[in-house]
Design a protein that fits this description.
Structural class of chain B: alpha/beta
Order of helices and strands of chain A: HHHHHHHHHHHH
CATH superfamily of the largest domain in chain B: P-loop containing nucleotide triphosphate hydrolases
Distance between the termini of chain A: 57 Å
Number of helices of chain A: 12
CATH superfamily of chain A: ABC transporter involved in vitamin B12 uptake, BtuC
Strand order of the largest sheet of chain B: 5-6-7-3-8-9
Radius of gyration of chain A: 19 Å
Number of strands of chain A: 0
Number of strands of chain B: 12
Structural class of chain A: mainly alpha
Distance between the termini of chain B: 46 Å
Largest sheet of chain A: none
Largest sheet of chain B: 6 strands, mixed
Oligomer: heterodimer
Helix content of chain B: 25-40%
């Protein structure tokens, strides 16, 4: 069964969606979507590094993203410039740097399209093992750090006053997001990674009453987006990465529509 | 139980507060007053151990449990959190303890409500209940009546004074209005980047230093502090402004029928 490229693509997509859901929730709650973008764009530099040093690409991407996220944490604490300006600058500068560096390496034939928008159909069995193995580690770590992370998301003062290691959780979270980017890049590419993290989370928000429920629901919404997107890609021959994001966006619109109808009905009932 | 000695806090090269020495003992209610940016919250954070003092020291008696109600926090809509979830935010607490604490502060009926739907007063009651979960020896409340109406404010202050006696704990209260908390307070410390004056509420309310900083006559001259001590709440719900006029609320200039910035202002000053 795993010999079929399409089955492998679906399995890889499901794995990535299951990881991206809970992490995406924290990124939305902590208002870090621009941060995610910056990390994803710097992933391109990781690819360059991997190609030059002949490292495993996923590992190289993780290393560069981890470095970038630690630098961002440090920058955030200095506050010389407004955070959104710093992120906006770094996000596009790293992307441009990556593209320039790739262009200079004329001796390498790089499929830029695959890097930017993903190449899920070329997923190998080894990739699958990596996605599910790393995914299990990341989700376990997230469960372990859940309480300090959630508490510092709601109020850093409360977390610190009640003795939770909020700064440690913060740094770990940044590193974990770097790993999530490295794992997801293959699927949807550096330009669309953030979409896969954020759209499922905001899609399910109106239907959830607890953070745990939202994390689980976001994972499921992500899985649904992957399945619908790949099916659409297969039947219309559209590019797979963007198709997944379009499917996620359609689910989001459906959620928006449902909530507004429900709200109107509630208002009608109460009058 | 907790003592600050000559403590100061510096952030990004700026002193938020310096030279603070203060002790809160068991069964004691100490109130911090002072204009915005005078270092009240920084002092509280040093007491709680959220920030270590950059100079001086903080000493807590061993085994002291601290409860904290921070300045009104905003919980983003994207975070789905019920009151029960907020109660359990920093650790698993059994339901009975949550119920008991919420019942004490009059918030039990809110248990399953999303926190974003609470009114200002309801939210503060939940936050105080949270702080009670550990049966604290020291309770620190940072402007616990922000966003609460006048009646609710009186009720909350009364409840805090009762809780102090029930738990036999020390209370450090940050307030923007000395007159509201005078009756229950043992000691008042007036801050403005350092300790301006301290003593019994009566002594501080009558002292020259306090009047210069926050008192009614000097209010106009100190308006650049942007604090709100330029008026007094009268028992019938009206407000006496710095110039002696009686108005319906604290800041008549925000109202459409404002009479500030016109002739009446000039002859008052």
């Amino acid at each position: 069964m795993l010999d079929d490229f399409f089955t492998r693509a679906v399995l890889a997509g499901i794995g990535v969606a299951l990881i991206a859901g809970p992490f995406g929730c924290f990124i939305v709650w902590r208002r870090m979507s621009y941060f995610g973008d910056t990390l994803a764009h710097s992933a391109l530099l990781g690819v360059v590094l991997g190609l030059v040093l002949e490292l495993n690409l996923m590992l190289a991407v993780f290393l560069i993203c981890a470095l970038a996220s630690l630098m961002l944490v440090a920058l955030r604490n200095v506050r010389v410039l407004p955070t959104d300006a710093v992120l906006g600058m770094l996000s596009h500068s790293t992307l441009a740097l990556g593209l320039v560096a790739l262009g200079m390496m004329t001796w390498l034939r790089v499929d830029l399209n695959a890097l930017l928008f993903g190449d899920i159909l070329s997923v190998s069995k080894a990739d699958l093992v990596l996605i599910y193995g790393l995914g299990a580690i990341l989700v376990t770590l997230l469960i372990f750090l859940w309480t300090p992370l959630l508490a510092s998301t709601v109020s850093a003062d409360i977390a610190r006053a009640e003795g939770l290691p909020d700064r440690l959780a913060d740094v770990f979270f940044m590193l974990m997001v770097a790993a999530v980017v490295a794992v997801s890049m293959r699927l949807v590419g550096v330009l669309l990674v953030t979409a896969l993290l954020i759209i499922p989370a905001i899609t399910v928000r109106p239907f959830c009453r607890t953070p745990q429920a939202m994390a689980a629901a976001a994972a499921l919404a992500g899985v649904l987006s992957v399945v619908l997107g790949l099916w659409g890609s297969l039947s219309t021959d559209s590019p797979s990465g963007p198709s997944i994001v379009v499917a996620a966006f359609i689910l989001f619109l459906a959620s928006l529509f449902t909530t507004s109808v429900l709200n109107r009905m509630n208002r009608g009932n109460s009058q | 139980m907790v003592t600050l000695s000559n403590a100061g806090l510096q952030q990004r090269g700026k002193w938020l507060v310096r030279g603070v020495s203060l002790t809160v003992g068991r069964g004691e209610l100490v109130t911090l007053v002072g204009p915005n940016g005078s270092g009240k919250s920084s002092t509280a954070k040093m007491m709680l151990g959220i920030n270590q003092p950059s100079e001086g020291s903080v000493v807590s008696a061993p085994g002291i449990r601290k409860g904290y109600v921070p300045q009104k926090i905003h919980i983003d809509w994207t975070v789905p959190l019920t009151v029960l979830g907020l109660m359990r935010l920093t650790g698993r607490v059994d339901k009975a303890t949550c119920h008991g604490a919420l019942e004490r502060t009059g918030g039990l009926h809110l248990l399953k409500k999303p926190v974003q739907e609470l009114s200002g007063g309801e939210f503060q009651r939940v936050m105080i209940a949270r702080a009670l979960l550990t049966r604290p020896d020291l309770l620190v409340l940072d402007e616990p009546t922000q966003g609460v109406d006048l009646t609710g404010e009186l009720e909350l202050y009364e409840m805090i004074a009762q809780l102090k006696d029930e738990l036999n704990c020390g209370v450090l209260l940050i307030s923007h209005d000395l007159h509201m908390v005078m009756a229950a307070t043992d000691r008042v410390i007036c801050l403005n980047g350092h300790i301006c004056c301290e003593g019994t509420p009566q002594a501080v309310a009558e002292s020259d230093v306090y009047h210069q900083l926050i008192g009614p006559k000097a209010a106009a001259a100190f308006a650049f502090y942007n604090h709100r001590h330029d008026h007094e709440h009268l028992p019938d719900g009206t407000v006496r402004q710095a110039d002696g006029s009686i108005t319906q609320n604290c800041h008549p200039e925000n109202e459409p029928h404002a009479h500030a910035h016109n002739g009446s202002d000039k002859h008052a000053g």
